[in-house]
Each structure stands twice: as structure tokens, then as C-alpha cells.
Fold this sequence. Notes:
There is one protein chain. By secondary structure, the chain is mostly helical. It is built from 17 helices and two strands. It has helices at about 15-20, 25-40, 45-60, 70-75, 90-105, 110-120, 125-140, 140-155, 160-170, 175-190, 195-205, 210-225, 230-240, 245-255, 260-275, 280-290, 295-315, and strands at about 60, 85. The protein has a two-stranded antiparallel sheet with strand order 1-2. The radius of gyration is 22 Å and the shape is globular. The two termini are about 25 Å apart. Mean pLDDT is about 85; it is low at about 15-20 and about 60-85.
Amino acid sequence: MRRYAIPFALLSLLLPITVFAQSRTPEAALNHFNDALKKGGKGDFDGAIEEYTRAIRLSSHFNTSKSSDSRLGNSLTDYSSESVTVIDPFTANAYNNRGLARFRKNDFAGAVEDFDQALKIRPGVADIYLNRGASLRAKGDYEAAMKDLDRALALKKDFFEAYSNRGSLKLDMGDPAGALVDLNRSIEINNRIPEPFFQRGYVYVEMKEYDRGIADFERAIKLNPNMAWAYQGRGTALMLKGKMLEAIADFNRVIELDPQIAWAYFNRGLAKFYVGRESEAQKDFDECLRLKPEMKAKLDARIDLAKHLRRIANSQ
Length: 316
């Protein structure tokens, strides 16, 4: 049972203003789109969703027999894309980005619906397949996610983000060798970003090649010293090597950078439990379950294992 999760890459779609102008996108729609970008960048995903919805309305024709403007105006977040006849490829970008905002709110079903609409308008855009694949993976539909990533790579041969995501997905599906091939290819295309390195690090952890995993996590940290997930990976590898105090230091750094990563509390609690700091460990376990209550079964099993391992260590 793993002690980690691996986030997927997602991409926003931003067309040049000249493209919008050529397709006669209303200026008001562009303004709402830009406002949505600003709100999303500040973490206001509800506000971003409303602004993207307004942009979609203004760049589309509506079938008023299914949905009136007054209803939409009163409940923008309940907007149904089925009532829209699209006249502007800009609308696909708004659907895509609204899908990203919904993904950030853990509304993975809603995100998939938005990416579906975007792909109806712009079926040749690899980035949208990448994003839908990430949402499908988050929903647990690995087979459909794999098809989307394959399609993204068929459309865009040097799409390193898609290679990274497909590599992580192959790891999820129990194929670390296949994952390694894809992540190596991603790094071959672009070795200047941290994501493929920390993802490959997790592959090495799964293969029990902890030192190679640590080397990849450290490469990711060098490229981005504030990458919480890279510290999470290194801490996991250190913990599996039995270096609990070093692991705790890395998990401290994860929580400092991103206190919403439940796995950091999960792992730090286990490491503290193992070294006998049980009261501190319990606080971490409580916080882990506050963030992700569904992790209780995993946590209970790991606590039992930690107790067993500690008894063995103390008896030697």
C-alpha cells in the first residue's frame, strides 16, 4: 500500500487576442475570461467558474426553448452547456478553463463534462485531452484516462506533460517499467522542469530503488526549491530507508509549503510513531483525516504495521 499520491499536470488554454478578434468574440466575453484567469490565479475558483460561464454565454447562441437568459443570469453555476450552439472556438477555451477550475474544487465529474464540451468544439487540441485524462484518472477511470493521453500524444508528438501524466498513470495501473519509459521520454524532451523528475522518483520508490528515487527528488528540488511534492517524495524514500528523522524534516517542509497535502501528515505521523513520539503522531493522524477522511482505512493499517515493526526493532 502506497504512502503517497502523484498529482497530474493540467494546462490552461490561452489563445492570442488576434485569434479571438478574428472569430468576432465579443469584447465583454474576453473581459470575463480575463477576470476568470485573475480569480483562478488567486484561488477563487467559484468566482472563476462564474466568469467563465459568462464568457461562454456571450460567445455562444442559446436555444431559449431549453434555457432562458433570466434563469442563467440568476444561477450561473447551474448553467447547462447542452443549451448552447457554439459559434466561436474561444468558447472551447472557456469550457476548458472552467473545467480546470472545477478540477481544482475536486468536482471531477463537472470537469469531465466541461472538457467534453471543449472537445466537441476543438477536437484537435491535445491540451484538452491531457486535462480530461487527468480528471478521468481522478475519478478512477484509468482506462479512459489512458485513451485520452494516447490521443494527446498522437496529436502532439513532443508533449512532455502527456508523457509525464501517462507515466504516472502506468504506475497507478501497476506498470512501473512502462512508467519509466514514458518519464524518461518526458525528461529527454524537456529536462528543465521538475515534474517529470519527481514523478520518476516515485517510480523508483515503487521499484524499491530508493537512492535513485532520492536523486530524482533532489533534482526536482534543485529546479524548484518550493515544490512541496518533491519533498514529499524524498521524505517517503527516506522513511522507507529507515531514516525517520530526515524523513520528518522533509515532511515538515512539505507542510510548510502546502499544509493541504494530507499524505504529508500521514507519513510524518507514521515516522513520529515509529520513533516513539506517539502523541505528536496522533495530532498528525487527526489532521490527515480532517483533510481526507477516506484515508482512515489506509492509516489504520499503517499504524498497525508501524507497531509491529517497532516491536521487532525493540526486540533486537
